[in-house]
Amino acid sequence: xxxxxxxxxxxxxxxxxxxxxxxxxxxxxxxxxxxxxxxxxxxxxxxxxxxxxxxxxxxxxxxxxxxxxxxxxxxxxxxxxxxxxxxxxxxxxxxxxxxxxxxxxxxxxxxxxxxxxxxxxxxxxxxxxxxxxxxxxxxxxxxxxxxxxxxxxxxxxxxxxxxxxxxxxxxxxxxxxxxxxxxxxxxxxxxxxxxxxxxxxxxxxxxxxxxxxxxxxxxxxxxxxxxxxxxxxxxxxxxxxxxxxxxxxxxxxxxxxxxxxxxxxxxxxxxxxxxxxxxxxxxxxxxxxxxxxxxxxxxxxxxxxxxxxxxxxxxxxxxxxxxxxxxxxxxxxxxxxxxxxxxxxxxxxxxxxxxxxxxxxxxxxxxxxxxxxxxxxxxxxxxxxxxxxxxxxxxxxxxxxxxxxxxxxxxxxxxxxxxxxxxxxxxxxxxxxxxxxxxxxxxxxxxxxxxxxxxxxxxxxxxxxxxxxxxxxxxxxxxxxxxxxxxxxxxxxxxxxxxxxxxxxxxxxxxxxxxxxxxxxxxxxxxxxxxxxxxxxxxxxxxxxxxxxxxxxxxxxxxxxxxxxxxxxxxxxxxxxxxxxxxxxxxxxxxxxxxxxxxxxxxxxxxxxxxxxxxxxxxxxxxxxxxxxxxxxxxxxxxxxxxxxxxxxx
Length: 650
Description:
This protein is of the alpha/beta class. The protein is 26% helix and 14% strand.
């Protein structure tokens, strides 16, 4: 922590008057206004920053013990870890995988950054996911059968998520996958030591256990036409990912067999075909794929004297496969990464960059590939690069800076596209597929699309898009109009559902009642849900409530340059129960009451009071007696989560 930040104590400095504060209109007398507190549910920025739209605040509040699990008919309370898993998987059925590999944009958006450091959201999700696997927790049960069926092309995270959400709605789902196994980029694009196969298989099986049909070894567009799927199914979902790498667009690259793509390199490794690499590996790119290639190349090492057919490029291209027995002879590899922008501008996650450097990978920024230099045998022997100057904000080549970097294997991790053979009508000209805001293909109303085939991004992005697409498919099958998505299109906490869960649902509306509505049992009082339209910012929180509390960082196994060869174990460890609860307790519960009692304690009129215990639940902990309230706004000022706003017209 770089020194403590100044915490907010109150909204305005002494003597300061906001320009838009009309005192005569806003204040009747001294500290009394016509406004009274209203309890406003809004989306926290962590969730707003999560591409999957997970109810992060919700499952953190469950882990920390604020939101209580439901109780069954016999009075037995559900285990809090099981309940946290159910809340987490409402949006994302892969918490154990996401807790390991997601770069956590949610943590960048966390309001706790305004106090000291963000909440370790990924660590808690890792904990939730591993607990569910260890205890064989199932996902929610499928919905009532609707008689509708959907074909899902591709067996990666987008199709698996869409199938999960569709089964919850009661629709039949059949996945068609060209590979022999499901998983897509989780299996073939990310090294197995980052997405352990037992973890991946366990989380995929939970989805299949919901009644999802799978047909592997079937390539749509080749084995079965897209038109045939449209004929046999009520809707088609395209989630084939972008598993074709982009070659280096420079002279000589297309002539050298040892110039390959990062996607192909990783697939060969994850398939088990590639057992050793090259002595001098040069990786082009600055994203997580480039870091994965570099890390794998260091682990694989090279064989000093190998047959020509065992060269890594021939294995990657599928011409041959390595004999596992040869790995005993391998030595270390010299691995370098170059990126055309400065190193601090690389899109790769900070943790991945840190890890590969610790493992002996050299990273060089501001180097632009110019030409692949060929040897007498027609293979690449070096990459000619030039230095770039970015001081002006744009790339300017430095004259006379060209030089060669020797390499036995050049791997380009600079972009991806989809394999649309046989489905060329979907191609937007870039090897990708267009989609509207509801992830429906604009040219045909029965085809939907999500994931990397729209634009390569994060696994969690594919999860979020697939959830929205599944909802759109459901609307299409029901003949409902595809409306404009909400401004904050995520999986929101629903107070009415929570009240039903705790057997406190409002009674049926009494149409005859004309007065006394403030105490009527058919309405939820003093609560407004703005979560679909508003994200609560840090400046509306009372940050002075929070003490400085250092973030929990997961234990990471240190792997130095000497130990990396042949090391294929996991690097990070999940937190235990105590560590997870302690870290979750750092959550500021932005946009939702977490029962701190500040408003009750500081109200000078005793107008704010706790709801009686039998009626309490998340989102309904305090209430206001408006006959006592003078509108002094103290309760809103001391609310740490920004849950209270002074009402009427705002």
